[in-house]
Amino acid sequence: MVMDDPDKYELEEAEGIGIFEPGQLLEDTVTKNQMLGVLGYTALGMILLVVVTFLLMIPLMMAGLIIINFYTYTIHIDPLAMLIMTSAELIFVIPPLYYIRSRGLPKSALGIKNMHSPLDIGLGILFGVAMLGVNIGVSWFVNQATGPPPSGIEAILVARNWPEMIAWTIVMIGFVGFTEELLFRGFMQRRMEIYLRGRGTNNYQWVALAVSSLIFGAVHLDIIGLPTRFILGMFLGFLAQRRKYNLIGPSVAHGINNAVVVFLSSLPYLF
After folding, report:
1. Could you say which of 29, 51, 91, 101 is the most buried, measured as most Cβ atoms within 10 Å of its Cβ?
2. Can you give the pLDDT at residue 24?
3. 3-state secondary structure of 5
4. What pLDDT is attached to residue 149?
5. Any idea which of 39-48, 145-154, 162-171 has the lowest mean pLDDT?
6. In the chain, where the domains are located
7. Separation between Cα atoms, residue 28 and residue 25, nearest integer Å
């Protein structure tokens, strides 16, 4: 299957209205050094997340929502504390936004365009449902191969009441879904695709999709969950490619998958 050039839509749109504004068209080339810079900015996003999460832990510890026992080397994280720390993923937007601002590029260079498209929202819902099924199936298969998780591990990605469930849904769709798609698909995968195209790589779009999905899975630092996240990354990256990197569809799909996973984990508390 041949996918459209990620720049083609923007260029045709500009030609169609007969207006040219310097800095309003997206990159048509990405050099090796620029690609290394993109990977560096992506890594910076992860580093910033760790720093902000650590800073958030301090007041949460003072509030008793996080308790560290230095004698038993155990840590208790209240689900509410996990919800608050998860919202720190908003920090992911800083490196990509700095990248486009320093190069005079529009927000559409990150896939922030036509964000109210009914078609893209509908595709996001469909992909989210499909991803959820794959998520459950692959996770089950991996658990069968590796065995169940050790007993005594606390469930922290749960909502203990409906207000918390609503908050988790907002965080997963509005924060996690959007910011991770901005960083990994709209920013990194898109430029990897342009870079590989410039090198004449065969099937460069599929290569960019696979490599970026592998990176997406690896940065979660969960070897058991890597296969699941890699496959989910393939779903999200494919949708981004097919919709010319409009982020609303992948963001909705990502957020729905995550929110429903939290909901399923929370059933004993909600009913």
Report:
1. 91
2. 45
3. coil
4. 62
5. 145-154
6. 27-270
7. 9
Gyration radius from the chain CA atoms: 20
Residue 137 structure tokens: 């199936």
pLDDT digits (tens, 9 = 90+) for 133-160: 999 998 888 888 877 665 544 567 899 9
> How far is residue 149's CA from residue 214's CA, in Å, rounded to a whole number?
23
From residue 259, how far is each of 79, 170, 172, 175, 239 by CA, in Å?
14, 8, 6, 11, 19
How far, in Å, CA of 244 to CA of 110, rounded?
11
The two structure tokens encoding residue 197:
């195209």
Cα 211 from Cα 215, distance rounded (Å): 6
| One-letter amino acid of 33 | N
Burial class (CB in 10 A: 0-12, 13-18, 19+), 167: middle
pLDDT at position 2:
45
Q: Nearest to residue 224, comparing CAs of 130, 132, 140, 154? A: 140
Is residue 73 classed exposed, middle or buried when 0-12, 13-18 and 19+ CB atoms within 10 A define those classes?
exposed
Q: What's the DSSP call for residue 110?
A: G
**Would you say 127 and 237 are in contact if contact means Cβ atoms under 8 Å apart?**
no
Torsion over CA: 178, 184, 188, 189 (sign): negative
Measured from the Cβ of residue 213, the count of other Cβ atoms closer than 10 Å reads 23
Angstrom distance (rounded) from CA 191 to CA 186 = 8
pLDDT in tens, 47-83: 999 999 999 999 999 999 999 888 888 889 999 999 9
Give the whole-angstrom CA distance, residue 147 versus residue 141. 10
pTM of the model: 0.88
Closest CA to 63 of 83, 51, 78: 78
